[in-house]
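subagent[fold] <- orchestrator: predict structure for attached chain, return tokens only, no commentary.
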Amino acid sequence: MSTNRHIDKVCIVCITVLLILSLILISLKKAGALPASADMGYESRLFDTSKVHTIDIIMEDWDGFIETCETEEYSACSVVIDDETYKNIGIRAKGNTSLSSVKRYGNNRYSFKIEFDCYNTGISYHGLDKISLNNIIQDNTYMKDYLCYQMMGSFDVAAPLCSYAYITVNGEDWGLYLAVEAVEESFLERNYGNAYGELYKPDSMDMGGGRGNGGKFDGEDFGEREIPESAQMPDPGQPPEGTQIPDPGQPPEGAQLPENIELPQYKNIHDSFEIPVPENTPQNGGIPANDDVSLIYTDDSYESYNNIFDNAKTDITDNDKERLIASLKALNEGENIADIVDTNQVIRYFVVHNFVCNFDSYTGSMIHDGRMSMIPWDYNLAFGGFESGTGAKGLVNYPIDSPICGGEISSRPMLAWIFENKEYTELYHTYFDEFITEYLGSGIFTEEIDNISQMIAPYVEKDPTKFCTYEEFEAGAETLKKFCLLRAESITGQLNGTIPSTSEEQKANSSALIDADGLNITDMGSMR
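subagent[fold] -> orchestrator:
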């Protein structure tokens, strides 16, 4: 009896100590005394980049699921990831204009999103709540997304983990995909710890499908987003009244466009940030641009930022909204930049981002510890895949000090501050030199791209749903390598002053630019 009483006391003491330790840990996390990032079990499993992984999707009515993919509704399935089985999880198609683009290619190779806890809370893949399976559309190299994320990650930018996965469906070959860590709770906790702040994915009018462009983590279907009155678009599939667009596939009357330029169909235009549009061409083919998605401060009204707040990826409060608006105001006024922007991280982001010439971009923004940062996403059209008549020479030599297409740097406040302050501009150049020297000049890039090509080649060759031929893949991979090496050579010249680093200077001295004869950008894949 005496022994039992002592055991009870010991248990009570132990429980009390554990509770105290837990409270201390919680306090330390809130105070920021613990490391910002967290180790997640999935990092060394699915995202081991030394091999091609296997994912078998098991579903009774796969054909029926494929027929309804454009609705982006979740369906139940099981998946086997490298011999580990997960039952009763959610799968749906994902994408924006790529959903409709798949049909134009004449196959059913959609991108997918797998949500482990869609039906059963608590299920995860070693801590991972959701993954994207990218179909590698419009990318003959199979490597654009992969390389961009690896470049970002190696340059200390918080970037999604990714790896190659060969997909089978009910044991039958489906194709080589890129598995990408979803930028949601697991990603945020891995990079920023439990107190990870708020995540926004600014997005305006979604005209090409693509439920995945915004919304909370719970997978709720929010239906069609309400278009703000400022957009003045009563019918999202039609241009505003008075807009002179006689043919949605043609440029507006009076726009001076080169003969070889092609504009997307009006109904498929989605808001982007760095679209290469010739001078005097109305942005987005005449569609009114949205200031909030460009992170431009207008006023203190919540409604002025619906395209940001309606697409918050984390739960936000009125205090969060006010904090973001105050940050945008300070950002646009150029005041106390270091207090509202994670300057080192954002400059590093733009170094890599501007190197890879991704004009379908200016993506998500993150508020953490009161400061904004940028998170890379969606690079299948990098390396000039979104270009319209710029040409290989223009892309190889794309100016690092005026990296905006179709507008002024001042229209991109998250970038403008870098060039408005001599100290930040010099840091931008220093980081660019560091990136080129350590990644491109050291031979790391050449070795990496050769290894990746060799690793995935057998899977590309047997891929039954691929968007290109195996020969086109080989040509694309070789072109990608040449492009990056020439781009590095040009940027080295731009940094040391032998090559102009702004668009105006390049127009005045085009003879100084790196020659790109024989380089066919479309070999790497492009919008079509």
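orchestrator: received. Logging for downstream: The first strand starts at residue 53 and ends at 58. The beta strands are 53-58, 75-81, 84-94, 111-115, 130-134, 162-169, 172-181, 198-200, 365-368, 371-374.
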